[in-house]
Design a protein that fits this description.
With 329 residues, the chain is of the alpha/beta class. The protein has two domains: 136 residues, NAD(P)-binding Rossmann-like Domain (Rossmann fold), CATH 3.40.50; 181 residues, Dihydrodipicolinate Reductase, domain 2 (2-Layer Sandwich). Helix 1 crosses helix 10 and helix 5 packs across helix 10. The longest helix has 17 residues. The protein is globular.
Length: 329
């Protein structure tokens, strides 16, 4: 079982290596791939050293699966080359997500739609993943009409440069900036570029990807995505309107019984999800479950997840595990 990791030296790439090791994925040979300037650099995995190679060398080595975390333009260029060589590609960028010919997968939510012929599989946006994990069991039971989501997203979602910017600002150091504004002691109501309708690309990803993953275009979704000066995970305030009424105790039970979700909802003891607790964990945490008292059949909740793990690396590795489980590789 040869596995290539494209973008192995980046923030998400490093996390993919960590998750592969932690979950004991049966890697017989790791093939780390990165940009030209990183070729030859040593990567440590399971106590062994592997040298970073070019994508041409990676394809020639014929891995079974290539997990990509190298940005959209790299994925658009290289994913088809790997796929043509019979290598399954699991891509973390937005390049293939809304392509009608590519599946957009969260294994616990829609893993059953994968087939042997899906050679380029898209990993959804981090904010979308944690939200659809909570929406899925509720949609099956009560049928969702509308979702209003506001996000509070960690700087780790932007990458190493953003983490450095936050740390530099906290320590009064000069340095390269990932954002057009200070992020420490501030929040920035813009993630990605603005589109013609006034929404950012991140907001449109959440809107469109949710419908695709849940396979229901009738669900209305609106989003506001905000960058905040934290690490450890993304948080979301989500308001969900259903066609049918619900019982709060049943909602709690449905979520508790859904694989990959942990309910933290004990306001008497001030227990609710926070990035502090979600950091370096694979589960999606949900709490602050309560009725919206302004309209019928509507639930408010608070969702937190480590965006580098379930929001990226863990979900990608789980897709690889699904390919293995279904004997596609």
């Amino acid at each position: 079982m040869k596995i290539a990791v494209v973008g192995a030296t980046g923030l998400v790439g490093s996390k993919i290596l960590q998750v592969l090791e932690e979950r004991n994925f049966p890697v017989t040979e790791l093939i780390p791939v990165a940009s030209q300037k990183s070729i030859g650099k040593a990567i440590s995995f399971k106590g062994k050293q592997y040298k970073v190679v070019s994508y041409q060398d990676a394809i020639a080595a014929k891995p079974s699966i290539a997990i990509f975390s190298a940005g959209g333009s790299t994925s658009l260029e290289l994913a088809p080359k790997f796929a043509e060589a019979g290598i399954y590609v699991i891509d973390n960028s937005s390049a293939w997500r809304m392509n009608p010919n590519n599946k957009l997968i969260v294994p616990e939510v829609n893993g059953e739609v994968l087939t042997k012929n899906d050679y380029i599989i898209a990993n959804p946006n981090c904010s979308t993943i944690q939200m659809v994990m909570v929406l899925k069991p509720l949609h099956l039971k009560y049928k969702i009409k509308r979702v209003i989501v506001s996000t509070y997203q960690s700087v780790t979602g932007t990458g190493v440069k953003a983490v450095s910017q936050l740390n530099n600002e906290r320590n009064n150091l000069e340095g390269e900036k990932a954002y057009p504004y200070q992020i420490d002691m501030n929040i920035i109501p813009q993630i990605d570029v603005f589109t013609e309708n006034g929404y950012t690309k991140e907001e449109m990803k959440m809107i469109l990807e949710t419908k695709k993953i849940l396979q229901d275009d009738s669900i209305k979704v609106t989003a506001t995505c905000v960058r905040i000066p934290v690490m450890g995970g993304h948080s979301e305030s989500v308001n969900i309107e259903f066609e049918n009424d619900f019982d709060l105790a049943d909602v709690k039970k449905l979520l508790e019984n859904f694989e990959g979700i942990t309910v933290v909802d004990d306001i008497a003891n001030l227990q609710y999800p926070m990035p502090l607790h979600a950091h370096d964990k694979d589960d999606v945490f949900v709490g602050r479950l309560r009725r919206d008292e302004t309209q019928n059949n509507t639930l408010n909740c608070w969702i937190v997840s480590d965006n580098l793990r379930k929001g990226a690396a863990t979900n990608a590795v789980q897709i690889a595990e699904k390919l293995l489980q279904e004997k596609f590789v």
